[in-house]
Specification:
Largest sheet: none
Oligomer: single chain
Radius of gyration: 21 Å
Number of strands: 0
Number of helices: 6
Structural class: mainly alpha
Strand content: under 5%
Shape: elongated
Number of domains: 1
Order of helices and strands: HHHHHH
Length: about 180
């Protein structure tokens, strides 16, 4: 046991890293459903990892502070990993976009590889007026807007995963009241 969390919670944090990698890489690479899938999986992933952290630690019966610390730790590690991977994949796509679109969408976008293509992709999708209302009128302002939104999403992902983790710890405590056997 460590001072703050049990060894089982540390192991659960490692499991959370693997879970985050599977969720983020699998779904963010499938562009049309990526952000929606990640948002939908954040809370259940937290629930599972928060519960597992205490199961792995054999924390039946308490105490509450340790159960919540285990769950929060595993949720935090899972959420941070998700956020880092999300931002990493977004950075790859942001910097490598070459304007390719399939013919049913009008063919390739004329642009310079990278941020220029992302900016023009947003404009081609008809989001120009919406962006102008937000003060986004050129590539530099778009770049600031884009990354501000991505970092905000990543922060929300961490918060939702930690909240799920804590609730998973609560669920574990309420469903496992027996004291561990010697």
């Amino acid at each position: 046991m460590t001072r703050v969390v049990d060894r089982g919670a540390i192991v659960a944090g490692w499991v959370g890293i693997g879970m985050a990698a599977v969720i983020i890489v699998s779904f963010v690479l499938v562009i049309p459903i990526g952000d929606v899938a990640v948002a939908l999986f954040a809370f259940p992933a937290g629930l599972i990892i928060g519960y597992y952290a205490n199961q792995r630690s054999d924390r039946r019966g308490g105490p509450w502070p340790r159960i919540l610390a285990n769950a929060a730790w595993a949720g935090l590690i899972t959420g941070l990993t998700s956020a880092i991977l999300l931002l990493g994949v977004k950075a790859i796509f942001y910097n490598a976009d070459d304007g390719y679109r399939d013919a049913s969408l009008g063919g390739p976008i004329e642009c310079s590889t990278g941020p220029d293509c992302v900016w023009k992709r947003y404009l081609a999708a008809g989001r120009g007026p919406q962006l102008e209302d937000l003060g986004v009128t050129d590539l530099p302002s778009f770049t600031s807007f884009y990354w501000r939104e991505q970092v905000s999403t990543a922060g929300t992902l961490v918060a939702v995963t930690v909240a799920g983790g804590i609730l998973g710890g609560v669920a574990y405590r309420l469903t496992n009241r027996a004291r561990p056997t010697a």
